Amino acid sequence: TIWRVGRLEGGRLATELREAAELLRGGGVVAFPTETVYGLGADARSTAAVGRIFAAKGRPADNPLIVHIADRRQLDELALSPSELAETLMDRFWPGPLTIVLPVREGVLSPLVTAGLATVGVRMPDHRTALALLALAGCPVAAPSANRSGKPSPTLAEHVIEDLDGLIDGVVDDGATGVGLESTVVELAGERTIRILRPGGVTRESLQLAVPGAVIDAASSEAPEEAPRSPGMKYAHYAPEGELELVQGRPEAVVRYIREQAGAAQARGEATGVLAFEERLGLYAADHVYSLGSESELEAAAHRLYAALRGMDAGGVQRIWAEACPERGIGAALMNRMAKAAGHRIVTV
Ligand code: TXA
Ligand code: MG
């Protein structure tokens, strides 16, 4: 079932969302929009339901899921009493793209959700439709991104259908998501240390502003270490089918390098693609050139990245080059995702 929120009037919206919520309560798996990417939801207390998420995505069982709530009062059931630092972050960033890893309360969530960890990642999405659905469902909803494992996360309902049609019970379609990259996942140590396990919609800078005394320990876009603290970090994610290279350096050098490489690949008969900022878009002659928007507004690049990577796949592109960006603000999350999509092939020119 596809419920198209945009086409529904107020009254019908509630009816259709009620149908989706009832499916969730009955052990179904339903995809829904959030402000970051589309999620694939199931009742987090039900092992049968959560098992269907892993099966539909083809997700490794040792990668835990984020639990979504609509109301702070749902937290008591899921997690042990949060620290003052956790409360401060919730006050400031919820609803919003911040997942906080908290000590889990035993016996409520399906063990599949936490993948055997003593912690649970929780967030409250800043999205009207998501919040309405979560409130109607009335249960904690486990939801990873609604893509097949290893594909770019879905920023449109069409992407969900492309990957998961026939494997899930329904999709709530409310058009494009906002941020376009996943939430920031943080782990807290004591009252002062915030460890960013995955950069995302809430920037390091805004965390620092919210808690000026905090020590913020940020995950880099380098290849993950041996024993990642966030299990999801060890998997090759967001990989397009073509081979992607991330190119950094002075703009003129970047343009020269990509033009040379793409020209040579074209001469070999390969289908080529470039992900570039508006400022230099016209300088590339690859078969598929996608705009990341202006370099001075990286939010647009975040919003567009995953759809562009899917576009490359649809176009059968074999070799892709992406322009790097400064790792400031949302740029940190953007570089993290582009580096992963590149399988950490990053060249400095
Ligand atoms: O924006 C988002 O976070 C989206 C939307 C749907 O909410 N969800 C999402 O879920 O990106 P997923 O499953 O694709 O990514 C969850 C990430 C993984 O890297 C996972 O390892 C990490 O969060 N994670 C979940 N629970 C954790 C825990 N208890 N400790 C450490 N990392 C955890
Ligand atoms: Mg994901």
From TrEMBL:
<dbReference type="GO" id="GO:0008033">
    <property type="term" value="P:tRNA processing"/>
</dbReference>
<dbReference type="Pfam" id="PF01300">
    <property type="entry name" value="Sua5_yciO_yrdC"/>
</dbReference>
<feature type="binding site">
    <location>
        <position position="123"/>
    </location>
    <ligand>
        <name>L-threonine</name>
    </ligand>
</feature>
<dbReference type="InterPro" id="IPR006070">
    <property type="entry name" value="Sua5-like_dom"/>
</dbReference>
<keyword id="KW-0819">tRNA processing</keyword>
<comment type="function">
    <text>Required for the formation of a threonylcarbamoyl group on adenosine at position 37 (t(6)A37) in tRNAs that read codons beginning with adenine.</text>
</comment>
<feature type="binding site">
    <location>
        <position position="63"/>
    </location>
    <ligand>
        <name>ATP</name>
    </ligand>
</feature>
<dbReference type="InterPro" id="IPR017945">
    <property type="entry name" value="DHBP_synth_RibB-like_a/b_dom"/>
</dbReference>
<feature type="binding site">
    <location>
        <position position="59"/>
    </location>
    <ligand>
        <name>ATP</name>
    </ligand>
</feature>
<feature type="domain" description="YrdC-like">
    <location>
        <begin position="14"/>
        <end position="202"/>
    </location>
</feature>
<dbReference type="Pfam" id="PF03481">
    <property type="entry name" value="Sua5_C"/>
</dbReference>
<feature type="binding site">
    <location>
        <position position="119"/>
    </location>
    <ligand>
        <name>ATP</name>
    </ligand>
</feature>
<feature type="binding site">
    <location>
        <position position="68"/>
    </location>
    <ligand>
        <name>L-threonine</name>
    </ligand>
</feature>
<feature type="binding site">
    <location>
        <position position="143"/>
    </location>
    <ligand>
        <name>L-threonine</name>
    </ligand>
</feature>
<dbReference type="InterPro" id="IPR038385">
    <property type="entry name" value="Sua5/YwlC_C"/>
</dbReference>
<dbReference type="InterPro" id="IPR050156">
    <property type="entry name" value="TC-AMP_synthase_SUA5"/>
</dbReference>
<keyword id="KW-0547">Nucleotide-binding</keyword>
<feature type="binding site">
    <location>
        <position position="36"/>
    </location>
    <ligand>
        <name>L-threonine</name>
    </ligand>
</feature>
<comment type="similarity">
    <text>Belongs to the SUA5 family.</text>
</comment>
<feature type="binding site">
    <location>
        <position position="153"/>
    </location>
    <ligand>
        <name>ATP</name>
    </ligand>
</feature>
<dbReference type="GO" id="GO:0006450">
    <property type="term" value="P:regulation of translational fidelity"/>
</dbReference>
<dbReference type="GO" id="GO:0061710">
    <property type="term" value="F:L-threonylcarbamoyladenylate synthase"/>
</dbReference>
<dbReference type="GO" id="GO:0005737">
    <property type="term" value="C:cytoplasm"/>
</dbReference>
<dbReference type="InterPro" id="IPR005145">
    <property type="entry name" value="Sua5_C"/>
</dbReference>
<feature type="binding site">
    <location>
        <position position="145"/>
    </location>
    <ligand>
        <name>ATP</name>
    </ligand>
</feature>
<feature type="binding site">
    <location>
        <position position="238"/>
    </location>
    <ligand>
        <name>ATP</name>
    </ligand>
</feature>
<dbReference type="GO" id="GO:0000049">
    <property type="term" value="F:tRNA binding"/>
</dbReference>
<keyword id="KW-0548">Nucleotidyltransferase</keyword>
<dbReference type="GO" id="GO:0005524">
    <property type="term" value="F:ATP binding"/>
</dbReference>
<feature type="binding site">
    <location>
        <position position="198"/>
    </location>
    <ligand>
        <name>ATP</name>
    </ligand>
</feature>
<keyword id="KW-0808">Transferase</keyword>
<dbReference type="InterPro" id="IPR010923">
    <property type="entry name" value="T(6)A37_SUA5"/>
</dbReference>
<feature type="binding site">
    <location>
        <position position="183"/>
    </location>
    <ligand>
        <name>L-threonine</name>
    </ligand>
</feature>
<dbReference type="GO" id="GO:0003725">
    <property type="term" value="F:double-stranded RNA binding"/>
</dbReference>
<protein>
    <recommendedName>
        <fullName>Threonylcarbamoyl-AMP synthase</fullName>
        <ecNumber>2.7.7.87</ecNumber>
    </recommendedName>
</protein>
<keyword id="KW-0963">Cytoplasm</keyword>
<keyword id="KW-0067">ATP-binding</keyword>
